[in-house]
Amino acid sequence: MKLAEVLRKECIAVNASFSNKNEVLREIARLAGKYKAIEGIDEEDILAELEARESLGSTGVGKGVAIPHCRLKSVTEFVVGIITIPSGVEFESVDGEKVRLIVFIIAPEVVSNKHVRLLSVISQKLLAPKALETILAAQTPEGVYNSILSGKDEEINGEQKTLKNLLHVFIQNEDLFRDILQVLAGVESSSLVVAGVENAGVYLSKMPLFASFWSDEPSDFSRIIIAVVDKNLTNETIRRIESVSGDLNKSLDVMVTVQELSYAAGSLSA
């Protein structure tokens, strides 16, 4: 499955305008209902599931983008649509900015792993330089469709078994952590876990011998993302991390290590 296979042209609206978040969710329910596979589903049912998802936390991911999504028992196919809102709308986003681009997903209830990977692939597309501006500049559904699908269209689910590498991604910046985790979740055939740890500086600053090195309390944010990826995807995975972190050789708050695995079996659910 690829994004091009689930992005529905009839579910794209260009240059829309809304007064509030609820109006946006209602329009998503209406647009989604235009796709033949879910024509028989009541718009109010779709809206209720979208609202239930938003009650867990806004899907406004920041930088003018929101990715509302929900899962329904009666849906058998993924439905992805897009709404552009040049003037923006309040969406309770994580950074407080108005949302100008909506990419929504209506998903089957039983394929949560594909749903997570699809979310990550979309996030990766929108992290590309000038992606938001390019999509918003499109004046037709066809133009929006082509804009978001420009570049490589990632496979959402891969089954091929290959040699594996183990990656440890050490991160001391909370904003980078969120973006890098989203990027890694979209890597084909990967399994991820996150470990919460503490920086050594938190402890050293409390030891008399080292206390003079910190004038302020050292940052206590630190996470390790542990990823098992196909060996032939390792370079691509590092490239994706650097698309968020910048040149790793110059980074002061992200470090990546790679180990070749002599044996790896099984997988982890998201």
What is the compact description of this entry?
The chain has 270 residues and is α/β, with parallel strands linked by helices.
Structural Rg: 20 Å
CATH superfamily annotation of the largest domain? Mannitol-specific EII, Chain A
Query: Which descriptor suits the 3D outline?
Result: globular
What is the terminal-to-terminal distance?
18 Å
What does this molecule look like?
- By secondary structure, the protein is of the alpha/beta class.
- It folds into two domains: 3-148, Mannitol-specific EII, Chain A, CATH 3.40.930.10; 164-260, Alpha-Beta Plaits (2-Layer Sandwich), CATH 3.30.70.
- It has helices at 3-6, 21-32, 43-55, 112-127, 131-137, 141-148, 174-185, 200-204, 234-245; strands at residues 7-13, 60-62, 65-66, 69-72, 79-89, 99-108, 164-171, 191-196, 223-230, 254-260.
- Strands 1, 2, 3, 4, 5 and 6 form a six-stranded mixed sheet that branches. A four-stranded antiparallel sheet has the order 8-9-7-10, with helices on one face.
- Helix 2 crosses helix 3, helix 4 (112-127) crosses helix 7 and helix 5 runs antiparallel to helix 6.
- The longest helix is centred in the middle third of the chain and has 16 residues, at 112-127.
- The radius of gyration is 20 Å and the shape is globular.
- The mean pLDDT is 87.
